[in-house]
Protein 1
Amino acid sequence: MLLIDCPHCGPRDENEFHYGGQAGIACPTGDVTDEQWAAYVFMRDNPKGWFHERWFHVHGCRTWFTVERHTVTHEIRKP
Amino acid sequence: MTHPDFLWRNPEPRPAYDVVIVGGGGHGLATAYYLAKNHGLTNVAVLERGWLAGGNMARNTTIIRSNYLWDESAAIYEHSLKLWEGLSDELDYDLQFSQRGVLNLAHNLSDVREGRRRVNANRLNGVDAEWLDADEVKKFCPIINVSDRARYPVMGATLQRRGGIAKHDHVAWALARQADACGVDLIQGCEVTGFELTGNRVTAVETSRGRIAAGKVALAAAGHTSVLAERAGIRLPLQSHPLQALVSELLEPVLDCVVMSNAVHVYVSQAHKGELVMGAGIDAYNSYGQRGGVHVIEAQMAAALELFPVFSRVRVLRTWAGIVDVSPDASPIIGPTPVDGLYVNAGWGTGGFKATPGAGWVYADTLAHDRPHPLAQPYALDRFTTGALIDEHGAAAVAH
C-alpha cells in the first residue's frame, strides 16, 4: 500500500484515495478535430519511470492534488 | 516446475527475418505458430527480453470463456474458444484444458438483468449460455453461500459450460515447441531497444543482441507495449496496471467449476494440482512494478470468504502481480499502426490468456495479408477517433 502525502491531511494510506490518472490534461478549446478530441479523452502517457498524476482524498478532505510517482519503484516525490 | 528448454532450440539471432515478433508470451508464440502453420511463413523470430512465457503468461488465472456481451467480442473470443477445444490434439501436448463451466454471479437486481441480457446476447451469437437461479447455482456449486443474509447475496448466475481453465505453462511450451519445429527462431534474453525507420517504414529492430532487419515487426508485449511504441515514435491509448492474483495451499478437490463475480472482483478456480487460484481487480495506479497493494488482496479475500465460508481457514501460499495494458474501452487493439510495417496486438488488459490462440490466429492472418483479419477489424486503433468503441468495461465490469 502506498503512503500518499495529502497536502491538507499529511501522509495517509492509499486506500483513502481515489486515483485520477495523468495530471495536466487540458480540455482543448476552439475548433477541435476528432483526432484532438480523441487525444484529450483517451490518450495518456504511460511512462516506465517518473509520472505526474492526480490523486483525490475521497475518504478524507476531498482535495484533488498532484504527486510525482515512479511507476517501477512506486517512490513518491514532491512535484 | 522447470522450464523445458529441451523443447526448442535456443538459436542465435540471424541478421534478418520476414517477421519479427516482439514478446515471447502466449500471444507472441501463438502468432508465430499460426504464421508458420496457416501461412507458411517460417522466416520468423520471436524476441523475448526475459525468458519465454515468463510475464503475464506465467501470472494469469487461466480462465477461458467466450460469454462476452458485444458481437465483436463474442466473435473473437468464441473463435478462440473453438481453437482451445482442439488445441491439445493439434499441438500434441496435454494442455489440461478442462471445460468445467464458468459461473458469473449476480448479486443485485441490475446484475440479474445484465446477466439475463448477456445470456440472450450470447445465444444469438452462437455462444453457449444459461441462466441459473440461486438454487440452481447452489446445485451446480454446492460450496457457494447463497443465503440472502450474505454481504453479497447470490441472486443467480450465468453459466457457460464450455468455459474452463487450462495449464498456462503447457500452453506456452506446446506453442513454442511447434513454432520452433516449423523453423521459427525463439530468441530469449533479447530486448528490443529501438526501431530503425526508413521514411515511415520500420526496417529493423535494435536489440540488446544487435541489429535485426525485419520485413514486418509485430508487437505482442502486453504491459510493455507503450514503452516499445514510444521507441517507435507512436502513442497508444494504453495504461499499464498491476493485476494481482494468488494461490492457496494445496487442497483436496473442493471446487469443480470456475466462479467469477464482477461486482466484488473475485474469480476463483481450483487448479489440477489442488491449489485455489484467485484473481483480483487491477490496482488503480499506473505501474510496471509487477506488484500491488495488500489492501486489494484483502478486499478480494473478504468478498471471497463471504461467498465461500468453507475457505475461511485456507492459507494463502503466495501472491503476485502481472502488468496488464488496459485500453479505454477494455477491448484489445489489433492491427496496423501509423508506422508502416509495424503492427500491434495489445490492450487485452485483464483478459488476454483466454484469447491466446484466437489472438495469435487473427494477428498472424493480419500480418500475412497486410490487412486486418475480419475478426480484428473492429479492434483498429482508429476506433478511439471514430467513436466506434467496443465497451466491455461497461459490459464485463473490470475483471475479464
Note: Chain A touches chain B through 26 residues (CB under 8 Å).
Protein 2
Amino acid sequence: MTEENGALDGHGEEPSRRDFIYIAAGGATAVGGGLVIWPFIDQMNPAADTLALGSIRVDISQLLPGSEMTVMWRGAPVFIRHRTEDEVAEARDVELSALPDEDARNENLPDGTPALDANRVLRPEFLIVKGNCTHLGCVPTSQETNAGGEYNAWYCPCHGSHYDKSARIRRGPAPENLPVPDYFFESETTVKIGLNDEERANSGWAVA
Amino acid sequence: MSGPSTYEPKTGFTKWLDSRLPIIRLGWDSFVDFPTPRNLNYWWTFGGILAIFLMIQIVTGIVLAMHYVPHEAYAFDSVERIRRDVNFGWMIQSMHANGAAFFFVAVYLHMFRGLYYGSYKAPREVLWILGVVIYLLMMATAFMGYVLPWGQMSYWGAIVITNLIGALPFVGDAIREWLWGGFSVGQATLNRFFSLHYLLPFVIAGVVGLHIWALHVPGNGNPVGLDVRGGDDGKKDTLPFHPYYTVKDGFAILVYLMVFCVFVFFLPTVLGHADNFIEANPLSTPAHIVPEWYFLPFYAILRAITFDIGPIDAKLGGVLLMFGAIAILFVLPWLDTSKVRSMRYRPLTRWFFIFFVLACFGLGWCGAKNPDDYVLGIEGFKFLYFGQFLTLYYFAYFLVVLPVMGIVEKPKERPASIEAAVLGNNTNAQPAE
C-alpha cells in the first residue's frame, strides 16, 4: 500500500507505472496518428489504373533509316530514331571521359553502367529514349527540323542543352543523359515499351 | 496597444449578446476605436487593399468553380466557354485572372513598405513572419491556379516547376511522382491542383486573421518608426481607426479598384501570355517558357546559378537559392541590427534599400529575357551575368548590408514623438544615436 500512496503523491518508489501509462498512451497516439495519415499521403501516388497503363506497342516497320518518330508513353514523349550507319559510328566514336554524365541511364541495365552507345541501344540502328530534357522537362528539338544543336541530334531550347547522336548530354545545364525506358523488340517490327517482369527477363539486354 | 475596451452596448439585445459572444466588442475594438498612429501615409493602405482582393479572389473563384471542369480533355474548353458563353463569365474570369496580378502588386508594395519602414523589427517579428507565410501560400495558390486553364504555359510551367523538385537529392524523384500522381503532369495533377487551389485561399484567410491579431497587439508601425507614447501622451500620438483610417483606406481601395477595372474591362489579357491560348500539348514545348510576371525575379535567381558549388550541382544550387530568397525573409528581423526602424533616418541604408528595390525589378527583367541575350544590346553583357550580379546584391542586402549598417551607420536626428512629427513641434527632439 505504501507504494501506491507513494505513486499518488509522486515521491514514491513507483512513479514508473504512471509514467509507463503516459508514454504508452502517447506512443500509441503517435503511431496511430502516423498510420491514419499515411493513406492520406499515399493516395496522391500513381493509382493502380495509372500504373496499369504503363506499356505500349509501337510499329516501327515504316520508320526509315535517318528518320524518327515521337510516341506518347505514360503521358510523356518517347523518341524512336532509326539511325543511319554514320550516326551509329559517330555515337560510338566518343570517349567516356568526354561525357558529363558517364552513366548509361538505361532502365534495362544496372545503375552505373558506362554510357557507351552500346549500353543505350538494344539494336544499334534503333535509339529509343524518353523525350523530356533532364534539366527541367522541356521536349528537345531534333535534327529532323534542323534544330539538333551542336551535335546535330537533339537540342533543348529552354536552357540550351545539347545532346549527341546517342542522346547523351554533352553541353548545357541538363545533368543527365536522356534515359532509356525499359523496352524490347517483340518482333522484327514491333517494339514494346514498359515491360513486366517476365518480359524484362527475356528482353535480351546485356551490358556491353 | 489593445488597451481596455471602450465598447458600451446600448440596446437590450447587444447587452445580452455581449455577455455571451462579445463579437461586436471585438469588431469595435479592432476596427472602430482602435488607436492608430496619426501619421500613417498611403503606403499603409495596402493591408486593406489586400483584404479586399482576397475577398474578390474567393468570390470570383467560387463562381468560376461552378463552370470549370478539372479534366485534361475539357479544362481548356471550359475556360473558353466561361469567357464566351457563361453569363458575365467574361467579366468574372477577367476579374479572377487580373485580380491575381493586382493581389501581387499590392502584396509587393506592402512588403516594400515593411522593408523601408522597418515593420519587421521588434515587437512585430511574428507579425512579419505571418506575412511571409501568407506570401508563400499566395505563391502556391497562384502557381496552381495558373495551371488550371491548361494552356501551353500552364502545362509547361507546371512541368518546369515540378521538375525543380526532382533536383532534390535522393527523394526528389519520389516526391515529384507523388506530386504528379503519375509519370508526368497529367489528369491526376490537374485534379489535385484544382482541389488545393480551392482550399488554400481559406487557409490564407485564416493566417490573415492571425496576421491582424498579431498587428493589434503592438499596434501599427508608422513612417517615423517611433513607438506610440504611454499614458495620455499616447492619445496625442493616435487617432481612432474609424473614421480616420476607414476613410483613408476606403479612398485608396477605390483608386486601386479603378485601375483594376481598367485592366478587367479594357486590357483583360494584357498581363497573360499568348501561348496560354493554345491548349496544353505534351509533345511541343513553347519556344520560351516564362512564369507569370510576379514570379520572374525568383525565376531569374533560379537561372542565375549555372555553375556547380562544391558538391551541389547547378540545378540544385539554383533551386536552393530560389527558395532561400524567400526563406531569408523569415530571419530578416534578426539580420537587421539597427534599432532605428524607419529608413528616413538611415541616410546610407536608405540608398542600399533603393538599390534593393531596383535590383528586384532588374531581376524581374532578367527573368523575362533569354539568359544569353545582351542587356540593352551591349555586346558581351548577357542577361545571365546581369542576373547573377543582381542575385548577389539581393542576398548581400540581407546578409551584409543590414547586419553591418546597423553597427557602423550614424542615424539622423529623429522627432521627439509621433505628435511632434505631425504637428511640427520638434522641441524635445531625440538626439541622434
Note: Residues 39 and 422 of chain B are 6 Å apart (CA to CA).
Protein 3
Amino acid sequence: MSNPITSIKLVLLGEAAVGKSSIVLRFVSNDFSENKEPTIGAAFLTQRVNINDHTVKFEIWDTAGQERFASLAPMYYRNAQAALVVYDVTKPQSFIKARHWVKELHEQANKNIIIALVGNKVDILEENEEERKVEREEAEKLADEEGLLFFETSAKTGTNISEVFLGIGEKIPLKGLENEHANGGLNVTEDQRVNLANTANASENASACSC
Amino acid sequence: MGVRSTSQEITRETKERRSHSSSSSTSLVTSLMKSWRISSSSSSGSSSKPSNKSSQSFSGNPTTGTYNDTMYNNHSHTNDNNTNQQHRPSNEHGLYSLSTANNSDGNFDAMSKQQNSTNKSITSPANTYSPLRYSSPSSSQIESPRASVLRQQHYKHSHHNQLYYQHNNSSNISEHSTTHKKSSDKYFEDLDEDWSAVIDNYNMPIPMLTNGGNGKSSVSHNTQSNDPKNNLSRTSTASSIATSITSTTLTQGQSLQYPQLPNLNTMDAIDLQKSQEEIENEREVQELNSIMQRITKFDNIIKGKHIINLQELRQLSWNGIPKPHRPIVWKLLIGYLPANTKRQESLLKRKRQEYSEGLKHTFSDEHSRDIPTWHQIEIDIPRTNPHIPLYQFKSVHDSLQRILYLWAIRHPASGYVQGINDLVTPFFQTFLTEYLPPSKIDTVEVTDPNSYLTEDQKEHLEADTFWCLTKFLEQITDNYIHGQPGILKQVKNLSQLVKRIDLDLYKHFENEHVEFIQFAFRWMNCLLMREFQMDTVIRMWDTYLAETSPETTSSFATPNQLSTNNDVLLSPHTPVSRKPAMFGTPNADLTSPMSSTNRSNMGVQSGASPAGVSSSDDSSTRFSNTSLNEFHVFVCAAFLIKWSDALCDMDFQGIITFLQNPPTKDWTETDIEMLLSEAYIWQSLYKDATSHWLK
C-alpha cells in the first residue's frame, strides 16, 4: 500500500478537429501526427503518472467531435471524474462549442466532476500571433465563472500537455488519503453504475467498469 | 472413429493428388471423383456463395461425398459437367489443371483441388493461412451447442429436401427456381416453430442464383454432411486430423501447397520425389492458370453480351473480382450501370453530365455555400487515409471534397458524417484504376492521378465515384441520420448475435462491463474500414456488393433505371416496405414485435414473389434478401468471435484496447475471405432468427 493506485476516469469533449486525439496521443505516447483520422465513436486509452508518491492511472475516453456523434457523449461523461473540454485557439466557433460542453457537463455529468478548459494549437500562435481568435482572457473568464481549470496547450509541441493531466490529478482525492477520511460507502448513486467520482476508495478493479 | 479415419485417409490421398493432378490414376480417382463430384456439385453447384469456403469452414469433411453418395448419385452424374463447368468459378481457386481442358478430367482436377483446399483447412485451418489468426479462438467457439442442435434438426429436414431436389434436378433453370419458390413457401409456413425450417427458408434464394445448381446450398449440404452425432465441428475435426498428420504439414503455410508428407500412404511415391523447384513451378503455373480462368469467366459474363447476367456476376464476384474487371463489375453490382450493355454508354453520359451540372449549380453564385459542412469536409479530407499517399495529392483532395460536399447537400437528412469520407475512397481508388496504364494498377495507392488522367477522365472518375457512393449510402441511410438509428440497431443486433453464437464471450463482456457500442460503433460507422488495410477492404467490398442486392436500396431509380431494372418497380416488397423492417424507424423500439413480423413477412414475399417479375431476364431475379447492414453485422460477429479466446482472458482495458487496434495489419485477402465465409455461415444459420432474438 505504499504506492496505491488511483484510477481517474477522464473524458475529452470538444468540436471536431480541435486536437482532442492529439492531446491524448501526446500524453499517452508523447507522439504527434499531423493528420490523424477523425475519431469515430470514441477511443479508449490509459496512462499512468506519479503524483506525490501516488500512482494515478488515467482511463481516458477520447470522444468523436462531430455533432452527429454528440448523442454518444453522455455515455462517456456520465461516469467520468474529470473532463477536458478542448477548443482550438484559432477557431472561435470551437470556443462556443466548448461553452456548450461545459454547460452540458454541469447539467448532466457528475456534480463533482473536475473540468479543465483547454485551448489547443498555441503552436500556431508562436508563428503568427494574429491567428489567435480566442483571447486568453475570455477563456480565463469562463474558467473562473464555471470553476474550471484552464490551460493553453499545443499537442504538436507538447506545451502544457502533461500540466493539464497533472492539474487534474492533483484535484482528484487520492486513494490513500481518501481512506483516512473514511469516505466509504458512497458507491451507490442514482445510476446502477458505480459513481466513481465519489468513490475514490473504490477498488482498482471497480474502476475498470462501466465507462 | 470410422468417419474420422476415413477422412484422414482421404486427406492424405488428396494431398498426393494435389501435387499430381494431371496424372490420372485408378481406383482412388474413381472414388474421389465420386465423392467430389458430389460435394462439388453440392457446394459449387448449388451455392454461388462461399462454396469452397463454406466447406472449408464448416464441413470440410471428406465423408461428405460418402454420405451424399446415395442421395446424389443420379443427378450428380447427369448434371456433372454442366454444373461443374458453370460453377467452377465459385471455387475461388478456379481450375487447377495444367491442361486447359474442361472435360471431366479438368473437372476432377478442380474438384480435387477443392478438396485439397478443404482438407488444408481441416488439417490446419490455422496454419494454412496465418497461424496467429486462425488458430485463434474463434474456431473453438465457432460452434455453439445451439448451432449443433440446429444442424441436427436441419439434418433431418434436409433428408426430405434432398429427395425432393434430386427429383427436380434435371429440370431446367426456370422450372427449377419455380420449384424452389414452392418449397420455400412450404417451409415458410412454420417459420417460427421450426429452426430447421428457418434454415431451409434461408437457403431458398440461393439456388436461384445458380442456374441449375441442384438446389441446395452449400451450407445445407455442409450442415447435413457433418455427422451430427460426431459433432464434427471445424475444430474437433481439425484437431483430430491435425494431430494425426505430421507436424510438418502444420507448420507449412500456404506457401507450400505441396508439402512432402513423410508418412503418406504410398501412391505416387515417385512423384513425391520431384524437386521442390519443380513443384514450385508447377504451382505457379497452376496459380496463373486459375487467375486466367477467373478472368476468362468474368470476360465471358461481361463482354459481348447484350444483357449481362447479373445473377451470374454476383455469384462469381462473391469470391473476388479480378482487378481489371473490378471497376465495371462494381458499377454493375451496385446498380449504377445497367445490365443492358446497349444502354450503358448513354447512361454514363447522362449521369456524368448530371454530376457536372450539379457541381456547376452548387458552386454557382446564386447557391450559398453551406459553410460548416464545407469546412468539416475540408478538415477531414487530409485526414482521410493519411497513410496512403494517393490521398495526399491535391487533385484527389479536390475531387473528394466536391464529391462529399455535393453528396452532403443533396442528402440534408444526414449531411456529411465522418466515416463517409472513408467510404468514398474504395470507389475512388477502384475506379481510378480504370484509367491507369496496366503497369500502374498495382501501385494505384502511390500514383498521382494527375500524371495519367485527362481532365475528362478525372471528371468521369469523380462522377462515377459520386453516383456509386450515392447508391451505396442509400442502403445505409439510417446509419447517418440524426441519432444514427441504423448503427444503434446494428450494434444491438451484433450483441444479440454474439450472445447466441458465443455466450462465453458475451458473458465475459458483461462481467468486464464492456459494452458493444464502445467498440462496434466504429465498425458500423465505417464498415470495418478502419480495421483493415485498403486492399483487403476492397476485396471485402467485392463480396459486399455481390451479397447485397441493389433492390434493398431505395429510390435512386431514375427513369432510365426503372426501365432497365424493372425489378425495382415490380417487386412486391419495394424498398419502402422493407426498409422499416430492416432498420427500424429512428426511434423504433428494437424489441417491437412489429419488426420481427415484418421480417418474416418479407421473407415469405421474397421467397414467393419473383415468379413472373423477371421472366424476361433472369438476371434481374431477386438475388437475396440481404441488406448491407445486415450482412455487415454477421461479418462483425465473425470478426469479433475470431478473437474470442484471447478476449476472454482480457480485462476491460485489454479488451477495448485490443478491439481498437486488432492485429489485422498483415491480413491478406485469404484472411478476409475466411472471415466473409464465416459471416456467411453465421448468416445462413441465424439470419431469419431475428424474430427470435428480439423477443
Note: Residues 178-211 of chain A have pLDDT under 50 and may be disordered.
Protein 4
Amino acid sequence: MTLYNNEDRFISIEGIARRYPKAGGGETTIFDDLWFSMNRGEFSCIIGHSGCGKTTVLNILAGLELPDDGVAVVDGHAIEGPSLDRAVIFQSHALLPWRTVLGNVSFAISSKWPQWSADKVRDQAMRFIEKVGLKGSELKKPAELSGGMKQRVGIARALSIEPKILLMDEPFSALDALTRGTLQDEVRRICLETGQTAFMITHDVDEAIYLADRIVLMTNGPGAMVAEVVENPLPRHRGRIDLHKQPDYYALRNHLIDFLVTRSKSFKDEIPTDYSKRHPPIVRPTAALAPKADLSAA
Amino acid sequence: MSSNLTLRASVLSFVIFALFIAAWHIATRQTGSVAAMDPEYAKLMGLTATTGKSAMPGPFDVAAKIWEHLKNPFYDRGPNDKGLGIQLAFSIGRVMLGYCIAVCVAIPTGFVIGMSPLMSKALNPFIQVMKPISPLAWMPLALYTIKDSSISAIFVIFICSLWPMLINTAFGVAAVRKEWLNVARTLEVRPLRKAFTVILPAAAPTILTGMRISIGIAWLVIVAAEMLVGGTGIGYFVWNEWNNLSIVNVIISILVIGLVGMLLDQALARVARLVTYPD
C-alpha cells in the first residue's frame, strides 16, 4: 500500500546531501538527494543503523550543520542556522553544570524572550519544571540529579521556549529501561496535550512504535537513502500496557525489525522499479495488509 | 574519623615544630668561655669568640625581634629604617598592581586565542619564546625604557604573571565542551552573552588555576626585583638587613615572605572553589 501524502507539509526535507572529505582524499557521501516531510503536530521518528546519517539529518534540522546540497524547509522558510523555533533535546542532556535546574531552564527562556522580567522568566521555568515532575528539585545542580532527572531538565528546557518543533537525538538511550519508559510516557503525554511537532532519532523499535505517528526508515550509510516512510497503524491514543495487544502491533513491529535486520543492508541492491528518492513510498503495515512482514518473521 | 586525623596531624605538626625550635636553640646556644684570651682581643672579637656564642641568632632572639616588629609595624624613620608592615605594604602593592594589569591583559587575550584557531597558531611562537624568559632578565630593558625603578618592578611582575594566565585561559576557552556551545547556538545566544554565560563559567576553573600559578610566581619575583631596584619593599628590606648583618631580621623576612605568599595563594584557592562546578 503506497500513497503520497502532501497535505500540510510543515517540515520538508528537499534533496539534502552531506559529504565529508575522506582521509586519503576524495569525499564520503553520507547521504544525498534525501527527501521526506513531516506534518504539523505529528511525531516522527527516524530509524537506521549507526553511521547512516540520522544525527546529521537532525543537526541540519537544528541548524547546527548545513547541507552541502538541497534545503530543509520549516514552516515555509529554509533553515539557515539555529533557531529558537526549533528546540533540541541532546542525547547527553548537555545541561550547564554550574547552573541549577531553574537556572538551566531560565537560561533558555531568557534567550528566547530577552525582554521578559525575571519574575516572568521564573514563572515560565517553574511551569515547565513542574510539567516534567521536578518540582522541589529546582534549586539543585545537575550533578545532584540522576540520569533520568537530568534528561527531564533537558526536556523542560527544550519545551519551555515553546518551540515549533522539538528535535530529539536519542534522548533516552543512556537511561535504564524503567526510567526510559516513564520519560517516554511523559514526552508522549506532553506532545499530545500541546500538539507539539516532534522529530526523534532512535535505535529502539518499541520506542518508535509507542511514540511515533510516522517512522522514517533509513538504509545503511554511506550513501544512505530513505527506504520508506511507515505510517503507524495503531490508534493515536495508545497505552504502554496494551500496546502489544493492538491487532496491528506485530505487523508493524515485524516490518520494522525486518527492515533493520535485512532490508537496511539489501535495499540498495534491490531497489523497487517504482522507487523514487523524491517520493519515498509511504507504507502502513497492518495485520491484514502486510503478509510480507509476517512471512519474514516466521 | 577525619576530625581524628586532623587532630593527630596537628599534634604531629606541633611536635615537628617543637623539635625544630629545640634543635635550633641547641645549635646556636652559648657554650661558655672558650679559651683564656687577651682581654683587649676579646673585646675586639665580641661574644662570638669569648663565650662561644654562634653568630646565628637563636629562636628566642628571633621571637623577641618579631614581638618588637609586631608592636610597631608601621614606623618610618627615614629611607633605611621603615617598619616591616610598611615594607610589606609596598611589596604587596606592587604585586597587586602588576598582577591586576596582567589579569586585564591575559584574560581577554586568552579568550581571543582560545576562540580563534588562527590567532592561537599565529601567537603561539611568541608565547613559547616569551614564556621561559626569567622575569628579571627584563629588568635592564625595563629600567632603560621606563627610567623609573618602581614602575620597572611593576612591569617585571606584569610580565611574569602574564603567561600562566594567558595559556590557561586560552586552554580553558578552547576546551569548553561542544555540547554546551551547541546549546548556546540552538538558543541563538548572542556572542557577548555566550562569552559571559557559557564560556567564562565553563573555563573559570582553568583560568583560576592559571591565576594561582601567576600570583605564586609574582610573589617569588617581587623579592628578587626589589633587591635589584632598592628603595622600599620586603625584598629591599632583606638585602638591607643583610648589609646591616642583622641575621635576625633576615630570618624574620623569610618567614613573613612565606606567610604572605601562603595567604595570597589561599585567597585565590577560595575563589577557585567558588567557581568550580561538579560534573
Note: The mean pLDDT of chain B is 91.
